[in-house]
Amino acid sequence: HENPLIAFMPSGRRGRFPVGTPILQAARSLGVDIDSVCGGRGICGRCQVVVSEGEFAKLGVTSKSDHLSDFSAVEQRYGDKRGLKPGRRLSCSAHVLGDLVIDVPSDSQVHKQVVRKRAEMRTIELDPIITLHYVEVAEPDMHDPTGDLQRLEKALKEQWKLENLDCDIRAIQGLQQALRKGEWKVTVAVHLGKQITAVWPGFNDKVYGLAVDVGSTTIAGHLCDLATGDVVASSGLMNPQIRFGEDLMSRVSYVMMNPGGEVEMTKAVRDALNDMVQAVAKEAGCSIESILECTFVGNPIMHHLLLGINPVELGGAPFALATDGPVQIWATEIDLKIHPNARIYVLPCIAGHVGADTAGVILSESPHESDEMTLIVDVGTNAEIVLGNKHRLLAASSPTGPAFEGAQISCGQRAAPGAIERVRIDRATLEPRFKVIGCDLWSDHPDFKAKTEGLGVTGVCGSGIIECLAEMYLSGIITQDGVVDGAMAAKSPRVQQDGRTFTYLLHDGEPQLKITQNDVRAIQLAKAALYAGARLLMDHLGIDKLDRITLAGAFGSHIDVKYAMVLGMIPDCDLAKVTSAGNAAGTGARIALLNRASRDEIVRVVKQVEKIETAVEPKFQEHFVGAMAIPHKTAPYPHLAK
Ligand code: FES
């Protein structure tokens, strides 16, 4: 008689196995990806499968109420304790009886796909940084004196085929207690398949990781379940370094003027991170000790300050980074209060102005894997720009200043409730209508006043400024050169003289919100810098056409791309191919948290990226001057005309 034939779906792998073989064992010998923490002891439930066809199926799929009745004793016990969905079997405890087709559901695979919000985004495949292994360790014996660690290593080798593991003194310090408390049964966390980082008494299958984007204004973190990749809690808080200076350069100046200032700023950001850890652990209902891994992205100055590196070298030419490699350290080395043996991974910076946040954006958006010529713009205080495709990738930073964030604008403010974010201007009467953050109604709606009671109309945020200026231009209130046209004062009382220049009254309330000539200039300078940076990279590649533009960052997700193009912030492109990527830098940190291979990948890509220094390129100045006009004088906008 031939042995029964077992096929596993979706991989399609198949083989013959003797009656009585555990399904998990059959899967392993065929290289089928099935998860396990308990090593086949019927404890973890990670190995669940569905029998979709075959003799065996009769045992598994019966009515809801009695579906456990035909199970092995182990499955029965697991089902009683933790529940087993109808049709599900524990592959470690279910044995081959005859020919079978087995479905491995995605949640039982180690390398499962992690769901992302938008379909077109690159999927994240789980390739765990931390693996958990439940082991039973031999007790010490007077006649065979060996260390507890050596017996643990022996057990890991025999039960998990794990060999040549490192074990840091930190893990050894807690080892004896864990072994005895767990009565010689412990769960071991192994980092990157190489290092024992934690040992818990008994069975433990809950470990978490934190992915953090340290921005100069906000710090955003996502706590992820390392087994599923799911985000279980998120937190965003203000970077407390703001009190040392609003923008990056003023923080570097603070260090230059105040010896030891970098130590204060390092402490401030690390304290904030510990607050974040507390907040996300509370939200997820887990202990801070269950966080075993942390990844970070940030611009070069944030990167240096987080790591306790003085950032002064980044304040002036030639803008040398302390390191452009990834940084891998213990959490305790940056005073992070999570599991005492947790590891930190900081993505590599690309250049003095192009940070680990851009490396994160690249991981998230993968221009290096695409045929399309893609421009990625991350707008913050500096605009970080990446251009290229799978053949070549260039990166630069453009000194846009903080105008796009609402700073340096007379009525500007951060994006917060009460800030104007959408603007339309009537082409004939020049009357504006707008929307504020926190209210869905346009300002000309009869209920607008009532609905914004308490909210107020407090200022204009970055995306509001962009729309307002673009609408002013389209209504003829500002000229191609960016002059608020005094002739329009005859047409509408909204255009008012203010000394030698004119302003546009956007909102006549408390406070009055006016767009001044200086405001227009500030945005012109910022957008010219952004455009010139993008154009410079296009020159380097010898191209004049883009296939795709991706706007990353908070600003990028609020801005209406049509208006960005009207103002000439970005080069011409099919509007359908201009998209927002949200916090792509943070997503990059999350990918590095969940996928082992991505760490090697980003290090490799960062090495290959051609770094362009805008400050030393005469062409940059040329483009900058040309780009001051609206939209600008250097290239046409065929897609806008449509
Ligand atoms: Fe843990 Fe089957 S492997 S329950």
Notes on the structure:
The protein is α/β, with parallel strands linked by helices and 642 residues long. The protein has five domains: 104 residues, Ubiquitin-like (UB roll), CATH 3.10.20.30; 78 residues, Ubiquitin-like (UB roll) (Roll), CATH 3.10.20; 139 residues, Nucleotidyltransferase, domain 5; 152 residues, Nucleotidyltransferase, domain 5 (2-Layer Sandwich); 105 residues, no CATH class. The protein has 18 helices and 29 strands. It has a six-stranded mixed beta sheet with strand order 14-13-12-15-17-16, sandwiched between helices. The protein has a six-stranded mixed beta sheet with strand order 28-27-18-19-20-29, with helices on both faces. It has a five-stranded mixed beta sheet with strand order 2-1-5-3-4. A hairpin with a 6-residue loop joins strand 21 and strand 22. Helix 9 crosses helix 16, helix 11 packs across helix 14 and helix 15 crosses helix 16. Bound molecules: FE2/S2 (inorganic) cluster (FES). FE2/S2 (inorganic) cluster binds next to loops.
Features of the shown structure:
29 strands; 18 helices; 642 residues; binds FE2/S2 (inorganic) cluster; Ubiquitin-like (UB roll); Nucleotidyltransferase, domain 5; 5 domains; 6-stranded mixed sheet; 23% strand; single chain; alpha/beta
